[in-house]
Amino acid sequence: MPRLSRTQELTRQQIVQLAPSGLSPNQLGERLLAAIELAVAFDGAQLYAVDPTTLLFNRLLGVSAGMQPHIHWYVRNLYLNEPLVTHPNLMRAGLTAVVLHDRPETSWGLPSHLANQFSASEYYRAYHTFTGADGGVLRAFFQADGLWIAALDLARFDAHRPFRPADVAFLRLLAPTIGRLIRAVLDRDSALSNATTVTPDACGVLVLAPNGSLRSCTPAAENWINLLQDAGESQVDHLPSVIWSAIAGLRAGEPLSGQAQVWASTRSGQVRIEASPLGDDGSVAVVLAPYVQPLPPAIPSSWDLTRQEQQVVGAVVRGLSNRQIAKSLVVTEDTIESHLRHIYAKLNVHSRSQLIVQYFAQVYNPDLVQ
């Protein structure tokens, strides 16, 4: 590990100590911003969770007081509209931390193939058109298990206090730890939600006029909007930022098939937010759909199984443990083990994994089954 200053080491220790704290995602976001500010001073900050598939923002984790009034305006009007380098493009380039200044040569960590898309004068104009951060914008991205899961923006407004290469190096050093922390807290939050709530099963639809005003909203959409509410924000005047993120992805050409979708977590489970053009006038339709685990196909008719043995096979294929199967069927684990022994004997398999392989081979490619 490189030699750290006293404040950098204090920041590192505070972040490491957050690991076993049991914080909510938003509490973790606030603590992370407070710790980072000790070593990397900023005038504004926002930390978002990211959909690992689309690389679009899907949850606000933390925001500094000065940025709080502007977060929805930013996601609605600037996010993905910046002509220089967008968050998804920086992640696709594999960058952990960069500093954007109004000149390419002082934009630390920015690869030449991204910086050289514009002339020096074009770069300068574009930077000052889309940001008032005369001291620069530091963007950092965090991975867990090889997937991008969060993005951090720090801004300095004083041109005499610019970000330095040391700030980039320090956040690159912290990035793996921060990524693991955020992933662990998001996973814990999701597990708690799944254990204590029932996921709504209705899709919701809202329609936005070309100027962004809400034209219509179904009751189910209103329910999902309340569940997606950003921490500390009333939805009376604002849609959640994740909805604007999906719309920004649509308008920026991020979707692969004419629509942009983002997966987000709520206390009632995961929801897919999908934005699509509604007409030539610029209207947008947004569908909010709950995640529903697909049911496996029916048990092959050639398998000579009792009704309860079929239920056990179906549960095994869905990944349930013996304890979970016993609970769902209101029987003992010994009964489930007995059912499995009979199933193995009837199908000439010897393990759970062989049963699953046999099932999918029979259902999807029966020619391979002798």
List the helices and strands and how they pair.
Elements: H1 6-16, H2 25-39, E1 44-50, E2 57-63, H3 71-77, H4 87-92, E3 97-100, H5 112-115, H6 120-130, E4 136-144, E5 147-156, H7 165-196, E6 204-208, E7 214-217, H8 219-227, H9 241-251, E8 260-266, E9 269-277, E10 284-290, H10 307-317, H11 322-329, H12 333-347, H13 352-364
Antiparallel strand pairs: 1-2, 1-5, 3-4, 4-5, 6-7, 6-10, 8-9, 9-10
Detailed description of the structure:
The longest helix has 32 residues, at 165-196. Helices cover 41% and strands 19% of the residues. It has three domains: 6-194, 2-Layer Sandwich (Beta-Lactamase); 204-290, Beta-Lactamase; 307-368, Winged helix-like DNA-binding domain superfamily/Winged helix DNA-binding domain (Arc Repressor Mutant, subunit A, Orthogonal Bundle), CATH 1.10.10.10. Strand 4 and strand 5 (147-156) form a beta hairpin. It has a five-stranded antiparallel sheet with strand order 2-1-5-4-3, with helices on both faces. With 370 residues, the protein is α+β, with helices and mostly antiparallel strands. Mean pLDDT is 85; it is low at 231-237. The protein has helices at residues 6-16, 25-39, 71-77, 87-92, 112-115, 120-130, 165-196, 219-227, 241-251, 307-317, 322-329, 333-347, 352-364; strands at 44-50, 57-63, 97-100, 136-144, 147-156, 204-208, 214-217, 260-266, 269-277, 284-290.
